Amino acid sequence: xxxxxxxxxxxxxxxxxxxxxxxxxxxxxxxxxxxxxxxxxxxxxxxxxxxxxxxxxxxxxxxxxxxxxxxxxxxxxxxxxxxxxxxxxxxxxxxxxxxxxxxxxxxxxxxxxxxxxxxxxxxxxxxxxxxxxxxxxxxxxxxxxxxxxxxxxxxxxxxxxxxxxxxxxxxxxxxxxxxxxxxxxxxxxxxxxxxxxxxxxxxxxxxxxxxxxxxxxxxxxxxxxxxxxxxxxxxxxxxxxxxxxxxxxxxxxxxxxxxxxxxxxxxxxxxxxxxxxxxxxxxxxxxxxxxxxxxxxxxxxxxxxxxxxxxxxxxxxxxxxxxxxxxxxxxxxxxxxxxxxxxxxxxxxxxxxxxxxxxxxxxxxxxxxxxxxxxxxxxxxxxxxxxxxxxxxxxxxxxxxxxxxxxxxxxxxxxxxxxxxxxxxxxxxxxxxxxxxxxxxxxxxxxxxxxxxxxxxxxxxxxxxxxxxxxxxxxxxxxxxxxxxxxxxxxxxxxxxx
Amino acid sequence: xxxxxxxxxxxxxxxxxxxxxxxxxxxxxxxxxxxxxxxxxxxxxxxxxxxxxxxxxxxxxxxxxxxxxxxxxxxxxxxxxxxxxxxxxxxxxxxxxxxxxxxxxxxxxxxxxxxxxxxxxxxxxxxxxxxxxxxxxxxxxxxxxxxxxxxxxxxxxxxxxxxxxxxxxxxxxxxxxxxxxxxxxxxxxxxxxxxxxxxxxxxxxxxxxxxxxxxxxxxxxxxxxxxxxxxxxxxxxxxxxxxxxxxxxxxxxxxxxxxxxxxxxxxxxxxxxxxxxxxxxxxxxxxxxxxxxxxxxxxxxxxxxxxxxxxxxxxxxxxxxxxxxxxxxxxxxxxxxxxxxxxxxxxxxxxxxxxxxxxxxxxxxxxxxxxxxxxxxxxxxxxxxxxxxxxxxxxxxxxxxxxxx
Lengths: 498, 405
Description:
The complex is a heterodimer of chains A (about 500) and B (about 400).
Chain A: H1 11-15, H2 17-27, E1 33-34, H3 37-40, E2 57-59, H4 64-77, E3 80-84, E4 100-104, E5 111-115, E6 120-123, H5 129-136, E7 141-142, H6 155-161, H7 168-171, E8 178-184, E9 190-194, H8 205-209, E10 218-225, E11 227-228, E12 232-240, H9 243-255, E13 262-267, H10 268-278, E14 288-296, H11 298-314, E15 319-322, H12 326-337, H13 339-346, E16 349-352, E17 355-356, H14 362-376, E18 380-385, E19 390-397, H15 404-421, H16 440-443, H17 446-459, H18 477-481
Parallel strand pairs in A: 2-4, 3-4
Antiparallel strand pairs in A: 1-2, 5-6, 6-10, 7-11, 8-9, 8-10, 12-14, 12-15, 13-14, 13-18, 16-19, 17-19, 18-19
Chain B: E1 4-5, H1 10-23, E2 27-30, E3 46-49, E4 56-60, E5 65-68, H2 74-83, E6 86-87, H3 108-113, H4 121-124, E7 131-138, E8 143-147, H5 159-163, E9 171-179, E10 181-182, E11 186-193, H6 197-208, E12 214-220, H7 222-230, E13 239-246, H8 248-262, E14 267-271, H9 273-284, E15 295-301, H10 306-314, E16 320-324, E17 329-334, H11 341-350, E18 354-360, H12 363-368, H13 377-390
Parallel strand pairs in B: 1-3, 2-3
Antiparallel strand pairs in B: 4-5, 5-9, 6-10, 7-8, 7-9, 11-13, 11-14, 12-13, 15-17, 15-18, 16-17
Helix pairs in contact in B: 10-11
């Protein structure tokens, strides 16, 4: 383990491990409980694999009743629980706790209801993101949020992380595409939020649950909105001499009132890594590559592509190709979609960062990143969702070289501080998890963080669900609940009062 | 004699809340008080008037972002956006006329507190989908910041969105950041005449499932259409409306797509740009029910369920209805003094679920029946715990959403 400390294991719980495992086996019979080292090994990390920790025990429930029973038992017995989907998180959100139950939701893998008339799908949380699109594409529909891991990541995990993807600019993140949830609280109580209607009633708990990283409840069913596939989609592949020129082009496209279905940029290093990997004809000499995809009715797409082309030329494009077939459009995307494995082939290890900045800060941030690369002595390739300012710097390092992981982490932390400094945020779509946990005070004051943690207290007052993630220090709910009320004087005689 | 506090800064707002907390003196929070008659009457001795915290702090059209103080008139924000060819895509409805007030009132804080969205919510999402960041004063008298000014942000819980639609019962917003979007170059409405409710529902869901990119879909049964005709809209008989926005050739092309898909053997007409905008404003703001004494409900159900719910209710008592959100939003006017809350909520439950809100009724009635949909016990208890965390002393708008907190 490197520098991120996890809560100290509770010896009292560990000493009762045998009893806890037996109780879980009664609740989840058959193969549903894994307590051998060899069986648990696959769960010791997620997509943030610089950190590993064996859980106390793994449980794979198959029914809502089992989830409810396990959580209720854990609540009664003070046992921590880490929920897990497909384990593709890049922020360590599903890192197990040594004294905790790791609850895998991957047996919840069925699409329950396809309702084309209401443009909704009801699915269990273990269904993959792409699985939802696959279930409805024969009807001409698709599910819009499309994280790069969509072939593997689960829809329940998407809820936990509020996943985005290249389509977010036009079609929103997970939170904008979820209509309803069924979830189980740590007490074992089952709650339903929303449904096939558009606005859920009462407090917007759907909003709180989406992106809550497994800290508030365990999702057992989701209802998502599906969209009709656009009539056509075409992409332009534009090379620029620099990221600055590309960034200016992006600002002008949006300034012209055009919201593309996707707008992605890659820097020189990323272009060449990707081209080595997929060989689709990316312009190797370009300082930056922009992929702009327009979707919608054909007449509109053609009209807007012509506008995008004109804007790109005005901004000094050095190469410009427009897809003329579906194959070509997919080829344009192939490099961008495989950027992470492409870097993985070049470098023994890499850290994938995920900050968001106001678009106009892009040139300044990229320049500073080059300086930081020098300072830390590590290379950094950049792919980013240019339309919404979500950066994914990929920091290349070698874990076998002493000190490189720490240097990479310091480099990453510097990048995220920079994002906040220019008016952005620590994470756009990967979540805080453990990776950015200790940076939260960079963005939030103590009062801000306390108010966030009070939300947790409403859902999970004993703080048994995924503790040690998201928040740098665990405040007890009793301490967060204290009020300091000083009696009496109206301290503001000058506030207008009628 | 109740006091009205009118803070000019976030810090002053915080000080008022701190005083109220110390004195156990609950506050009713208002902007321009244009929606004060929605929800349960608040049990508070004093008013916290946020209209003094007004003004657009930051507006960057090329970043699609706007930050403003909560007392900023929504009309001012819409005008600033229009000057840059942008808009609030969630299309906030204007409750003024329906509640017997002038049109064009209301503040940003009120719009966000009530999560007000209009017809275009169907395509573009609700107000909550466009909220990026919020600073607020909690019922503990602490100023806290949440969210940010960028669209992609999962740093901590999504408090800005969660506070949207909480009717001022959790915190008092002191600064709000919104995502804004380009305004369409033009628009037209595809109008089908003469459909019954059930047929209209099927037609709307077919249109929404097509690639015509319909941004709003509404159906006005004969009575509602007649009410709007009396207000100068060119309607005669039941009208099913499908809104198309975009640049001219695209709108024309999609109009013809809809004609090919839905027009065979039916009466199709086209409502052009300005008339289309005016017609949708009338649908959005429930003009058909303006100026009557009827009690007015908003029902949120699955789009295919709207017509079934209304058919069930119409068989039991006199009422008038029209549909927005492709049938998923039912505006229901009930004459007389009996709001029929139980019958309405039972019909919704029998048709797949959803909720009903009583948006226009005299205060005594709003005190005596649940204005917002009652929730199952575990959910209601969770909501109460959340209120407890934000506002342990019950200082902020007590009783506005549910009796007791």
